[in-house]
Specification:
By secondary structure, the protein is mainly α. It is about 100% helix and about 0% strand.
Amino acid sequence: KEKEERKKRELLEAEKQREREEQEKKKREQEEQSRKLAEKLKQEAEESRRKMQEEIDEAKKRSEERVKKMDDREKEAINDLDRWRDEMLKEQKAKLEKKRGERRKTQAQKNELISDSGKEKKKKKK
């Protein structure tokens, strides 16, 4: 009877030991799954962060290119205005020179007439 009792206890102990081992095995498997899932999530998060950074960098680059184009257009417009202003100034200067030339010519003619009339008066006096 004692042998049977001992055998039952040993069988019970063996059964409990198997259950503990099985539970530990399940626990290790769950921990491994959790670790793998955590690693996968970490990789996905890193990939997502990397992609987002690439998009940000790309958007920044496009923005800088737009700003550069706008700056170039602005510089070109300023240069166009400068050229136009220079042309207008040249035209004004040319007109002024022409008017001065005409005035000098007119003044010279007037002076000549005055001079001629002064000579005529002298001739008459003589």
